[in-house]
Amino acid sequence: MTRFLVLLLLPLFSATAADLHRYELPRLAPSASECEVQRARIDAAFTKQGVTVFDSQCKLSGKHFGLTLTYVADKPLDIISTMERYPHMVRTAFRHEADCLRDLELEVRNFKDQTRLEPLVAYCSPDTFPSFFSEFYVRVDALGSPLNRPFTFERMVLPRLKGKIAQLTAELMGAKSDRLNVSRVRFFNELGGHHVSLHYYAPARVCLGLEKLMSFSEPDGCDKYGAALKAITATSSDAPLGLVCGPWDRGAEAYVLGARDRVTMRSEAAPQSFVSLSACDSKKAELEQFYKSTLKRKILGSLCHLNKDQTATLSLIEERTAPKECY
Question: What's the number of CA atoms in the CB half-sphere (13 Å) around residue 203?
């Protein structure tokens, strides 16, 4: 009865009309008693934020108990959650709870370091729709104003990455950016293709993209030219997080992973064909200068690579102003 009176009287003492808001934690605890302990603690945390807890209940859902909390406030509280990064839980979750629990410790450390907030809850929750690929996902929530928020970027990767995933993961985890902090990189198979899931913290979502830069006619093109291509892209005014390169369709393809709202990169083959790599290399500096000085193009560098007929092509890597749209 008291809660109903509070709800009725609140508008009389507030210049802004209050409203009911809901906070849900599905599959929070394996038992009713554990859920009740969590409920009392979370009720107190919400009350400390200056809102009125109107109702909170633990309810059985499958084999776990979830919590639904309803509170009275002028506007919803700012709840920072790693759930913001799960647009496709089946892809980004874990198949085994033990793997999730191992990741949870790391996630809590990253969350506290990046948000500067103390977690309200941190647990491994069974996926709503378990599949062959995954059954558990990490959830860490907090109340307050964060330094950085958790986000995710996920895309399908066309090149075959067998034997390269460990190296790519290490490179992307070590990537430096003034706009975001990478907290986790995962490559996984789904429907016969590789996907990359990049977890990061930033003040706001960054417009990331995974865009094809160039193709090689040789299946081992990434091994031969990847390092040189990566060094060229690193000179961009908004350097990418990394280069994803691997065999594809009897050749190889290289993709740039990075922000795409300031600048983008593309490659363009010079009109000349060269009889050998050495002949191509001998003309590189001259052609680069022509494109920069005469054509006024922002060329970052160039790369000579072999064609199937053993002639060579010079590909010039150009930086361009990014398109206005972000998707």
Answer: 3
Give the residue-averaged pLDDT of 224-252: 91
What's the pLDDT band for 59 if we cut at 50, 70, 90? very high
189 CB burial (10 A radius; 0-12, 13-18, 19+): exposed
DSSP 274: B
Q: Give the model confidence (pLDDT) of 96-138 as tens digits.
A: 888 888 889 989 999 999 999 999 999 998 766 555 555 788 8
Residue 192: what pLDDT?
63
Q: Is 173 exposed, middle or buried (0-12, 13-18, 19+ CB in 10 A)?
A: middle
d(CA 91, CA 70): 30
CA 148: distance to chain centroid? 14
User: In this structure, what DSSP letter does residue 221 have?
Assistant: H
Residue pair 270/284 in contact by the 8 Å Cβ criterion = no
pLDDT tens digits along 173-201: 878 788 899 988 888 776 666 778 888 99
The beta-strand segments (E) located in 144-262 are 149-157, 181-190, 193-202, 208-216, 242-248, 251-259
pLDDT of residue 302: 97
Distance, in Å, from the CA atom of 10 to the CA atom of 8, rounded to the nearest integer, reads 6
DSSP run (H or E) holding 28: strand 19-29
Residues 288-319 as b or e (16 or more Cβ within 10 Å = b): beebeeeeeeebbbbbbbbeeeeebbbbbbbb
Spatial CA neighbour of 240 closest among 214, 199, 195, 207: 207
pLDDT at 231 over 60: yes
261 burial level (CB within 10 Å; 0-12, 13-18, 19+): middle
Can you give the pLDDT at residue 34?
97
Instruction: Specify the 3-state DSSP secondary structure of 231.
Output: helix
